[in-house]
Amino acid sequence: MELLSEYGLFLAKIATVVVAIAVIAALIINLTQRKRQRGELKVTRLSEHYKEMQEEMSVALLDGHQQKLWHKAQKKKLKLEAKAAKAKAKAGEPEENGKSRVYVLDFKGSMDAGEVNSLREEVTAVLSVVKPQDQVLLRLESPGGVVHGYGLAASQLQRLRDKNVPLTIAVDKVAASGGYMMACVADKIVAAPFAIIGSIGVVAQIPNFNRFLKGKDIDIELHTAGQFKRTLTLLGENTEEGRQKFRESLNETHDLFKGFVSQMRPSLDIESVATGEHWYGTQALDKGLIDAVGTSDELLLGLIEAHEVIGIRYQHRKKLMERFTGSATESIDHLLMRWWQRGQKPMM
Prior knowledge:
348 residues, 2-enoyl-CoA Hydratase, Chain A, domain 1, 9-stranded mixed sheet, transmembrane helix, transmembrane, hydrolase, EC 3.4.21.-
């Protein structure tokens, strides 16, 4: 009996230790997740990346003896640069290369424009350090999506314009509808020859199951306070008055869209391009929708010689479940993109 008592006491001690360890681990994980949820700003010196790539190619084309000489000279050069940097740091002199900076942002938009959460952080980061001679390059890819999401994304870019920070937007694949709403904020739009540009229009569609439900003797009751609280419904019987109001709302949104584009690009003949159609890069140039034809790679290579090019990316830390649902959402967005490329129009 005494043995069982001691064994039970031993098990209780073990259980207490295990529970204590589990509680401490849970607290640490919780604190870590809270810290990660704040996100992380990643800064990449793209100038150095391109320079290293150029050097690698140059060295690869040399013969063995020349490569040895190059590496020897490179070591000597790096040693002298490190010595000079150390002397400057010791003297308290700031390390300046005399070049203005180009901050490079990326926006690959989904239907709900959820990427605006990172964009707002990136714009804030740039505005906190930007100097009068600096500029911003945004690589944009989006077929558009919900009105309020892309309206907010365009407003984030407007913050740069309001602070007189030169903004160039490069479109390699697509900037249509809400994507073009973002692009038109820029001082300069550069698009690849076959990039899809435009689609200044608004579309909305919903299925209606009312006739099916009536056939099954199922009644749907919809009660609203306000004549047009609901114009069209999924399950109830839609009226011609509701349809007309719905069309009016679409036209009002389209007018706002056209007004915004006209404000950003006053020289554009808005009525000729606000038909919901899209054009390829070379055609968009003729229409005045863009300012130049070219790829983002050409643009960056042209800037690297005279500027320090810096990539800015803000990443939100996600929980495990959010990562799973995010991957599912991304898959749906890719599917929607494929449908759009086969002839479907974006929402905005």
